[in-house]
């Protein structure tokens, strides 16, 4: 009987991980309790997003600067709060501001930027509930049209390369290189998932960070993701049709399903909720994406919006037989305008075809109809065990089980590729799939990809079906000569045309009969059991001795749950014993020995927390599922200090968690020095090591 799935207890701590990023947000109920009651004024302010309000303030500061530099008695243009007084600042003044900016001898603002200034001024009237003067309507519109023509004339007459509006579109080749760079980063798969999600969903960067696990749905052999709100659908009244995301088994670097599996595997404590927890994660991705592109192409002006431009261009113009422009516009959330918006509606078949195209599947090949890697039987106990081991926080989420199994199948299918590409310190290598050889082998035996007993391909255009039939006919014709030759040879042999000699079949039957008579039957029943795995020793050329770990070994940058598994079970696939059995003799550098010491202290803290919570220390022998539950129980009961911003609690690394625990112990120690904890790391201008003793953290000694 299959054991009941283990689930992780909720995490309530909100510590800092020290990298300046925010952590997982509290549950919705907690957020609702923290927010002030909704008022009519707040509801009106919600019509303008916070980003737009920030842009408006910037535009108004520019206008205020112009007023102070060009107007006599400029203070009369501002009220007591220092804001622009619209009773004094008239449309004529605003028109003079626009003309001055167009005639500026230095940096000339673009007409699109000047349009933002007009919107900012209009927002003042809206906030004060004052009717907008008629001068801001048709007359101002005519002025802006003239500005655009003047700007176009200047650009045409000017020397140098014409600059496109906004960022450049990201080509597919550059996208694949960016996927290659982000795949190997030690950020737990964050950048790689963010990039592939934005490309496959054809959405804005801001929309990616709003995706919740509740927005995901199982759509046959794809994943459907729904956006309830976007820039073009601020009030949520637009259609809520799923955007289908497909796997690409031919290119694992760009496969979004594989990227999602990597990300969830690297964060086993992250359960249902935001896919990418934390605030302003788009800024975090923007920095990483910029660094990845600088390694490939530093000459072009790319940004996160280049992804959206690039994928739309690739979908429409990447092939002469691509998806319809209507499907592209609907997936991107663009208005078709007028009659088109009323009559051109969403249809799943068109979006599925588009999903396969943006996934990178070759549209001019029969491989376009490739199914994702999946299991022959999704209800197999081995598959269930794999899901619990790799995604324990989702063990009881029945709605996401098909998606989790799709992600697990992709990881098992691309196991060799990931083993080759990922660095040895990547967090995925600490997961169960990459530590336990038997789990990988068991899952691989259940994999299918070409002929499926239950899965049917969707989103396939008619020409791809013809490609498949032509490929089958070609294979049959190519195999015909060899098949005919074998049949003629067999016919000649059976008829004995070469004389009265013995043919091959008669010879084989005679040999089998002799062997059956001479070889004792019991010898065939001998079963040779596989030898138990033995510990692997590694020779170090530097000292000429054998060690439990290779000289090039380094500790992975991993989640605390994966570190706990490595501490108790090691890595069978890498030939590494349980880390708790290591000694400093097996580590080649002082930095590695210091890291091992930090791991050991952290594991002792977790074990003590488990004992306080359950009344007993972790047993010496336990399953990985039991150890995972105990680990999360201990981590959630650790006394972690509060932090002002909400942190990504489920993604804390070992050293970060240890630093937070030590900080709390230091603050609770009445005998500790009064200088700040951060200052304890630096004393008299020299770096010191804080030594943990039985009475707490000992202060650094002066040299």
TrEMBL record:
GO terms, molecular function: DNA binding
Region (Disordered): 1-47
UniProt keyword annotations, A-Z: DNA recombination
Keyword Ribosomal protein belongs to the record: no
Any one Gene Ontology BP term: DNA recombination
Record-annotated Core-binding (CB) domain positions: 38-129
Gene3D superfamilies, A to Z: Intergrase catalytic core
Domain of life: Eukaryota
Identification of the protein by name: Core-binding (CB) domain-containing protein
Organism encoding this protein: Phytophthora nicotianae P10297
Organismal lineage: Eukaryota, Sar, Stramenopiles, Oomycota, Peronosporomycetes
């Amino acid at each position: 009987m299959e054991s009941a799935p283990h689930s992780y207890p909720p995490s309530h701590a909100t510590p800092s991980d020290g990298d300046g990023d925010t952590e997982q947000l509290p549950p919705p109920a907690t957020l609702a309790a923290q927010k002030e009651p909704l008022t009519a004024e707040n509801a009106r302010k919600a019509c303008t997003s916070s980003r737009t309000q920030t842009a408006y303030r910037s535009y108004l500061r520019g206008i205020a600067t112009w007023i102070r530099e060009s107007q006599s008695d400029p203070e009369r243009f501002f009220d007591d709060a220092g804001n622009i007084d619209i009773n004094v600042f008239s449309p004529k003044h605003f028109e003079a501001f626009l003309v001055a900016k167009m005639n500026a001898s230095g940096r000339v603002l673009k007409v699109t930027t000047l349009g933002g200034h007009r919107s900012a001024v209009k927002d003042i009237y809206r906030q004060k509930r004052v009717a907008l003067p008629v001068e801001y309507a048709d007359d101002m519109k005519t002025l802006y049209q003239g500005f655009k023509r003047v700007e176009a004339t200047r650009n045409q007459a000017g020397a140098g390369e014409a600059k496109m509006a906004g960022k450049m579109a990201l080509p597919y080749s550059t996208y694949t290189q960016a996927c290659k760079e982000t795949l190997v980063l030690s950020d737990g798969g964050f950048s790689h998932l963010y990039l592939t999600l934005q490309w496959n969903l054809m959405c804005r960067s801001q929309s990616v960070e709003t995706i919740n696990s509740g927005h995901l749905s199982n759509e046959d052999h794809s994943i459907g993701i729904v956006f309830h709100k976007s820039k073009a659908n601020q009030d949520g009244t637009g259609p809520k049709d799923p955007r289908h995301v497909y796997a690409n088994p031919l290119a694992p670097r760009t496969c979004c399903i594989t990227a999602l599996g990597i990300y969830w595997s690297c964060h086993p404590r992250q359960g249902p909720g935001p896919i990418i927890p934390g605030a302003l994660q788009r800024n975090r991705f923007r920095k990483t994406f910029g660094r990845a592109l600088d390694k490939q192409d530093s000459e072009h002006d790319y940004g996160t919006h280049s992804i959206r431009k690039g994928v739309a261009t690739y979908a429409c113009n990447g092939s002469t037989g691509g998806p319809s422009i209507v499907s592209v516009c609907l997936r991107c959330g663009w208005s078709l305008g007028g009659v088109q918006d009323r009559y051109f509606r969403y249809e799943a078949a068109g979006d599925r075809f588009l999903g396969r195209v943006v996934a990178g599947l070759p549209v001019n090949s029969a491989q376009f109809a490739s199914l994702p890697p999946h299991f022959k039987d999704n209800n197999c106990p081995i598959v269930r065990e794999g899901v619990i081991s790799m995604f324990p926080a989702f063990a009881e989420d029945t709605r996401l089980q098909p998606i989790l199994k799709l992600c697990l199948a992709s990881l098992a299918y691309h196991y060799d590729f990931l083993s080759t590409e990922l660095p040895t310190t990547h967090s995925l290598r600490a997961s169960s799939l990459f530590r336990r050889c038997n789990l990988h082998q068991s899952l691989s035996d259940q994999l299918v990809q070409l002929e499926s007993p239950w899965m049917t391909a969707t989103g396939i255009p008619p020409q791809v079906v013809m490609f498949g039939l032509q490929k089958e006919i070609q294979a049959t014709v190519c195999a015909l000569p060899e098949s005919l030759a074998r049949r003629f040879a067999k016919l000649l042999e059976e008829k004995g045309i070469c004389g009265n000699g013995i043919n091959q079949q008669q010879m084989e039957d005679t040999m089998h009969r002799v062997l059956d008579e001479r070889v004792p039957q019991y010898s065939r029943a001998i079963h040779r059991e596989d030898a138990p795995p033995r510990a692997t020793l590694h020779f170090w050329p530097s000292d000429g001795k054998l060690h439990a770990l290779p000289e090039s070994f380094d500790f992975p940058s991993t989640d605390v749950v994966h570190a706990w598994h490595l501490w108790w079970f090691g890595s069978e696939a890498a030939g590494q014993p349980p880390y708790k059995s290591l000694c400093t003799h097996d580590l080649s550098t002082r930095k590695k020995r210091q890291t091992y010491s930090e791991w050991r202290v952290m594991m002792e803290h977790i074990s003590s927390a488990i004992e306080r919570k359950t009344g007993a220390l972790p047993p010496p022998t336990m399953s990985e599922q039991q150890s995972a539950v105990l680990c999360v129980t201990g981590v959630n009961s650790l006394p972690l200090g509060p932090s002002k911003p909400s942190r990504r609690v489920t993604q804390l690394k070992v050293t970060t968690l240890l630093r937070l625990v030590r900080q709390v112990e230091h603050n609770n120690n009445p005998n500790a020095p009064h200088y700040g904890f951060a200052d304890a790391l630096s004393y008299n201008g020299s770096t010191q090591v804080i030594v943990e003793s039985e009475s707490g953290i000992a202060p650094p000694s002066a040299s």
